[in-house]
Amino acid sequence: MTTSLLRRTLQVVGVRVEPKKVGKVVKKLHAHLLNLPRLQSVVPDPVNANMKLVLLNTNAQKLQPVREQLQAFLHTESFSFARHQVHINYPEDQDAVGERINANKDQEVKTENVSFLPIDNDNLQQLHALNEKLFPIKYNEAFYEYVPNAPDGFCKLACTDDGTAIGAVCCEVEPVKISNRRRERLCILTIGVTEEHRRSRIGSDLLKSVIKQAVKGRISYVYLHVQCSNTVAQKFYLQHGFTIARKVRDYYSQIDSPHAFILRKQLARKP
C-alpha cells in the first residue's frame, strides 16, 4: 500500500472587494461562487493585502450569461475581476483510489454546485414553498416572521447555481438553565432536502453548518423532535452523534404517527 500527495491546480476568476463588502458580494453572486470541497470561496488578495477575492465558478463559460445582468452592480461598486490560481493538496492511498471512486458512484448522486444562503425577506417565499413540499405539517406565520430575524448562521437555504432552493435548515437559540446556570441550547425547527437531492450529502452539510455555528457560540447542546415512525430520520441523526433522550406522546397532534422522540447532541461540556 502506498500513499502520495495529490495536487490539483485550478485557474479561477475572482472579484476583488473590500472586506466590509464581502457579505454583500457573496449574496449577490451566490449562484456563481467557487463551491468545491477543500476550497474557500473568499480568500486574501495576493496583490493587495487590504482586499479580498470572492472566487467564482471555474467554468468561465458560465460567467458569460450573467455579465450583462451584473454589469451595473459591479460598475456601481467599482469591483474588478482578477485571475487567481488555487491548489488542492491531499494525501491519497493510491491502492484504494479505484475502489473508493467506484463505491462512491453507487452511494452518492451528483448534483449541481450548491451554496448556503441566509434566509431573508427576499427569499423567504422559497422557504415557504420548500416547507410545503417537504413536511406534512403547516408552519404558522410566527415561524416565518422569526426566520429572517434569526441569529446569523442558524437559518439558511441550500440553493443550486440557478437559485433554486433544494434544502433548508431553520434553528432557534433558546435560553436554558443547566445546574442553576444560564446557558443556551439550539433547537432545530426544520431541516430537509428535496427527494432528488437526498443522496448528495446536502442534508449532512446543512446539519454540520449549524452545529459548527453553535459550537462557536458555546451553545450547550442541540436537539430536535423526530416522529417515532420516521426511522430513516432517526438513523440519520444517530449517525451524526445524536442520542434519543426521551419520547413525547402526541407531539404532532395534527398528523398520523403523532408521537415523537427528542434527539439530542451534546456540544459544550456539562458544568
Overview of the structural elements:
- The protein is α+β, with helices and mostly antiparallel strands and 271 residues long.
- It is built from seven helices and eleven strands.
- It has helices at residues 22-28, 64-76, 97-107, 124-134, 141-146, 202-216, 231-239; strands at residues 3-17, 42-44, 52-55, 80-93, 115-118, 155-159, 165-178, 181-193, 221-227, 243-248, 260-266.
- The protein has a seven-stranded mixed β-sheet with strand order 5-6-7-8-9-11-10. The chain has a four-stranded antiparallel β-sheet with strand order 2-3-1-4.
- β8 (181-193), α6 and β9 (221-227) form a beta-alpha-beta unit.
- It starts with a strand and ends in a 5-residue tail after the last strand.
- GO terms for molecular function: N-acetyltransferase activity.
- It comes from Phytophthora boehmeriae.
- Residues 114-268 form the N-acetyltransferase domain.
- InterPro entries: GNAT_dom, N-term/lysine_N-AcTrnsfr.
- Keywords: Acyltransferase, Transferase.
